[in-house]
Amino acid sequence: MTTESSSNQPAPSQPPIVYFGSTTDEQLDNVRRLVDTFYDEMDQNPAYAVIRRLHPANLDHSREKFYLFLSGWLGGPDLYSPQFGHPRLRMRHMPFPIASSERDQWLLCMVHALRVLELPERVIEGLMMSFFRTADWMRNQADPPGSAKVGSTTGASNEPGRNGIPGITIKGEDVQ
After folding, report:
1. Which residue, 99, 93, 102, 108, is CA-closest to 38?
2. Which CATH architecture has domain 23-143+150-159?
3. What is the pLDDT of residue 145?
4. Which pLDDT value is given to residue 12?
């Protein structure tokens, strides 16, 4: 029987959750840590006051829902849908004014949280590309006239050209 060298074969796609630990418990603990770090940064850093004001005073419910959502989105167990149904992210965020500045503040909180977890930089980069696409799609407000970020509110503009990293699957989509 002839076998091909494994070096010639592409690495099978793995969900990002595998970078969060070696066991499901460890992975979920680190997803919780990611969410807590994200919300702590938003809550404590005055640079993110605009998006902080979009959230309730007590962040416990927001933290829990984001944790449940991210667990599945990252490729771990789907903890969100059994409790709340389909995420319908854009619809659920429609009541909140989101322009490019709010999107960017959200993304800065997230990249901070990912770096605190000390994930490999290529994993952070791939996740941030996916987070960018989702956060950009949430925009429902035009950017101010004269802004360098003026564009569509459909989430179709401002997307960087690179779509992620090899070997990572997010939401059933193989990211290249």
Report:
1. 108
2. Orthogonal Bundle (1.10)
3. 85
4. 58
